[in-house]
Amino acid sequence: MTAPRRTPESMKISISTKLFLAVLSTALCVTLAMGAADGWSFVRGFLGYVNELAVQRMDAMQTQVSEGYRQHGNWEFVRNQPRVWFEMTRPENDPFRPGDMSTPRLAPVSDLTGAMLRISLLDERGEPVMSFIEVGRDAVRRPIVVDGRTVGWLAMTPFQSVIEVGGQRFLHNQLRASLVVGLIALLLAALIAWWVARRLLAPVKQVAAATHRLAAGEYTERVSVDSQDEVGQLARDFNQLAHTLERNEQMRRAFMADVSHELRTPLAILRGELEAIEDGVRKLDGESLRSLQAEVGMLSKLVDDLYELSLADVGALTYRKSELDIVEQLRIVLGIYRDRCAEHGLALELQLPAQPVPVLADAGRLQQLFSNLLENTMRYTHAGGCLRVAVQVEDDAVSIDFLDSAPGVDERHLPRLFERFYRGEGSRSRASGGSGLGLAICHSIVEAHGGTIEARPSPLGGLWLNIRLPKGGQ
Predict the structure, then answer these.
(1) What stretches pass through the bilayer (predicted)?
(2) How many Å apart are CA 247 and CA 197, to the nearest integer?
């Protein structure tokens, strides 16, 4: 039976483990580097110390060696005579020198490390007289002067390694102590890395888990925010994202319900009319055809509006902008709707400048914008009311105001008037409410022109729609 293969997902390493390993690896590298530097520094310092002691020992021997040469007149008495050499160079405090043994005396540290075996005696020509090792170029030399004449040299060959010194055990103890300190430091680093990985990454893991649930469709998911650092900002951004997605999901469901409702009503009427004609209940005359044509026109208008909004969402609406007079465009649309306003019993109050007001805009889209606003007014405003249209030129913008009379809109509904299929009144009556897409299309057109549209309570008792567009050339 073959063992199951491990997938990449089962082999993935969590961010906590990665952070723990990163901190631990850094601490390990620093510990090893410090240990290596400490060992190198110790060895270099230890060798330097021992060599310095040997040089001091050699300096102390100069007087004794000079006195020996003065007594014998040459170096033949000590040439290749190790016993004579050691007797002559033995220090005053040597415990093995004959004399008073009542006071314990210690040999020099340099002698304990074998420095005497590294000190050689050379004649005036530099030839070895008494030497245990070969004298190299790196040897430290001291002249032997007798009666003002250099009769020879003392040469000390420095130690090159701790093994030569004989301090290998001392070095091992030092390295062992450094290793213990390094292991303790590494353990502390591991504990700190574990705490950091557990404590600091806990909110990140919480956001990651919430993100998985959000991706699965749980748009009500939220994470708690208890810090003001980058992790806290990440949690707040996640909550904002979840809120936006939840709202978009609600709007999507409401949109689907509204579309199905708006399509079902005229289709039901068409179906009923056709069945009545088919059953002979209603005659196929001009009135029935006009009724069918009206429902088809309403369906066509709804589909056209939906299509236009979908194009606006993806930025595919075509705008042919040019510098034009917005007052002229407004007069054209008002001229078309003047008779219809009179039929609805609405009085028009115009406050338009006498001089042209240039803006950079698409003439067709502006006329569509004004037509939708006028349609909205005629659909909602009671008979006998009025509509005031005003244009004001400001420093860097043109302000267009549409103010109508009662009925008004509750202020809590004003921010949502530009949402699709939203109607200010609670009724879903299509006779008064239309499709609910007109103001959404107006909002899209104004934004495409770099402007803003805002709904406010009207001083006339109805709705006040304010549009601000950039002036021409700006």
Answers:
(1) 177-197
(2) 35
d(CA 363, CA 416): 27
Structure token digits, residue 294:
């009206």
d(CA 65, CA 116) in angstroms, rounded, equals 14
Residue burial 327-342, b: 16+ Cβ < 10 Å; e: rest: bebbeebbeebeeebe
The residue with tokens 């709904």 is 455
Question: In sequence order, which residues have a C-beta less than 8 Å from that of residue 69 and are 6 or more positions away?
Answer: 75, 144, 146, 151, 152
pLDDT computed for residue 474 by the predictor: 56
Contacts of 181 (CB under 8 A, 6+ apart): none
φ, ψ of residue 154 in degrees (nearest 5): -100, 125
Would you state the pLDDT for residue 93? 55
Instruction: Give the total residue count for the chain.
Output: 474
C-alpha angle with apex 170: 166 to 171, nearest 5 degrees?
A: 90
Per-residue pLDDT band at 385 (split at 50, 70, 90): very high
d(CA 89, CA 65): 7
Structure-block tokens of residue 372? 């939708």
Task: Provide the whole-model pTM.
Answer: 0.50
Give the range among 32-46, 69-83, 86-100, 339-353 with minimum mean pLDDT. 86-100
β-strands 347-351, 386-393 pairing? parallel
**Tokens encoding 343:** 């039929």
Is the preceding peptide bond at 407 cis, omega within 30 degrees of 0? yes
Angle between helix 438-448 and helix 286-313 axes, rounded to 10 deg: 40
- Measured distance CA(30)–CA(456) in Å, rounded: 67
CA gap 68, 79 in Å, rounded: 12
Residue 446 in contact with residue 381, Cβ under 8 Å?
Answer: no
432 confidence band (pLDDT: 50, 70, 90): low
Task: Quote the CA–CA distance of 137 and 126 in Å, as a whole number.
Answer: 12
CA distance 163 to 43: 11
Task: In whole angstroms, give the CA distance from residue 390 to residue 375.
Answer: 17
The token pair that represents 256 in the structure block: 């689907």
